[in-house]
Design goal:
Length: 446
């Protein structure tokens, strides 16, 4: 009698969950191990001040097709807001609210009408931004940092603060002098230069944890508060996971979808497992300030702020706003009351109605390791390891995307596909054992 192949998925972030889902769909028995009490990893929700809040505001763009597919597959499309057309309200303390809006022209012309009316750029800035966008389209092997690339393309300080930084710093979660031009241009090309609709902003209107919960509900075993501390091996095959309480669990294959430092701890000798360069990843924090006012304050669903420590603000329900502060390495250690005051003051500076409203409550959420910095020269490993039944996943792996939900989902898909194709190899390499039987079934499932 054959049995379902049993895979241990380590990490209940969206990378691990996506891999687990893909494997479960092919008939594998999936056991998910998560060290914390929550599902979703960095894309989760929890209770703060008696309200369920997201660990930080998450948005995706219409070009994040793997994420949108996942949301649909999990039956959450009705809880997804997606703009009919790219449009952003831009707030500043010096001018009335401005709009950057795409027209119905094909890309990249769709941005021209919006730029023509955007008051934060001078006529010369508009020309220079337009030229840089044209150059971005053709520059397929840019070198060095994004800030240097923008300097080479004559972007003024005003163009940086009114266009490039509000979009690129939150997308990459790092200052532009620390990120590679290759990654910066990938974002620009993918969001703005390929398809007129690609940059449409989308987000879930239910707490983010619902996504992870819906995925986990389709897996066989979900083991929360179970950290994996190592692997059991037989030669070049993983035969089980070691758990923090001193116990273990057998498996036919394993997906590890945790951040690089934790992967390094689980593997022990990562280079010997064919995974190099884990020490090269540096993390950048994100801070979110949650403010509850006695009335609505924003006048729209979300807006970008110029010249402010808050880059984006979202009014999630009337009177509850979430302020997003990316690349927050200078803020992450500050006490909560200072962060709340920072958010309150920042909103009051650009929104007269927020200055007049009464702040009922405030809270701050911080993630010191929110994303890795896509610096020039960082080499991201792919899903494959030296062990055929072990694959890795995570937003930080080599997906081509910055550390986003989209990258996590894509990495999970790739990890599952890699296991499927490796599974055919185990069947020829092993005979007669339980694992071989399992692998044979895997090969049939593939
Ligand atoms: C505040 C904030 C805002 C963000 N905003 C956006 C946004 O607007 N748009 C966007 O696309 N992305 C955003 N991101 C990034 C996005 O959330 C992440 O890139 C993505 O969720 C990472 O998924 P992952 O599965 O790769 O990793 P993670 O979510 O880090 O999942 C890894 C999981 O592994 C678990 N784990 C670690 N070690 C072990 C172990 N030894 N045993 C068992 N489990 C273990 C962890 O607890 C965690 O649950 C944001 C991130 C943060 C923090």
């Amino acid at each position: 009698m054959t049995r379902q192949p049993r895979v241990a998925v380590v990490g209940a972030g969206l990378a691990g969950l996506t891999a687990g889902l893909a494997l479960a769909k092919r008939g594998w028995r999936v056991d998910l191990y998560e060290r914390s009490r929550l599902l979703g990893g960095k894309a989760t929700s929890f209770e703060v001040e008696g309200h369920e809040v997201d660990c930080g505001q998450h948005v995706v763009l219409a070009c994040c097709t793997a994420t949108l597919d996942l949301i649909e597959e999990l039956g959450l499309s009705d809880s997804l807001y997606i703009q009919p057309r790219f449009e952003v309200t831009v707030l500043s303390s010096t001018r009335p609210p401005a709009r950057l809006r795409a027209s119905s022209w094909p890309a990249p012309l769709h941005l021209m009408a919006g730029f023509a009316r955007y008051p934060h750029l001078s006529a010369l800035d508009r020309i220079q931004v337009g030229r840089a966008l044209v150059a971005a389209r053709g520059d397929v092997t840019p070198q060095g940092e994004m800030a240097a690339w923008l300097r080479r393309h004559h972007q003024s300080p005003r163009a940086l603060r009114a266009f490039w930084e509000p979009f690129l710093v939150p997308a990459l979660n790092a200052p532009l002098d620390r990120v590679s031009a290759a990654m910066g241009l990938f974002v620009i090309r993918t969001a703005f230069l390929g398809d007129r609709d690609a940059a449409r902003i989308a987000y879930l209107t239910v707490p983010l944890a619902r996504l992870a919960e819906a995925a986990a509900a389709r897996l066989d075993g979900v083991h929360l508060r179970q950290a994996v501390v190592g692997l059991h091996r037989d030669g070049d095959r993983v035969t089980g996971v070691k758990l923090s309480g001193g116990t273990g669990a057998a498996c036919d294959a394993c997906v590890i979808a945790v951040p690089p430092s934790r992967l390094s701890a689980i593997l022990g000798d990562a280079p010997a497992c064919g995974v190099d360069g884990l020490d090269a990843f540096a993390a950048m924090p994100i801070v979110d300030v949650h403010l509850w006012y006695d009335r609505p304050v924003l006048g729209c669903d979300f807006a970008a702020l110029l010249d402010s420590p808050v880059q984006w603000v979202f009014e999630k329900t009337p009177g509850y706003v979430c302020c997003s502060l990316s690349a927050a390495d200078d803020l992450v250690q500050r006490p909560e009351r200072e962060l709340v005051e920072l958010g309150r003051t920042a909103l009051a500076a650009v929104l007269p109605q927020a200055a007049r409203a009464q702040l009922l409550r405030g809270a701050a959420t911080r993630d010191p390791d929110a994303t890795f910095i896509p610096a020039p020269g960082v080499r991201r490993p792919g899903a494959t390891t030296a062990l055929p039944n072990l694959v890795i996943a995570g937003a930080w792996t080599d997906t081509g995307w910055p550390a986003t939900i989209e990258s996590a989902v894509r990495s999970g898909r790739t990890a599952a596909l890699t296991l499927f194709s490796n599974a055919a190899g185990w069947t020829t390499a092993t005979t007669g054992t339980g694992s071989a039987g399992a692998a044979l079934e895997v090969a049939r499932a593939v």
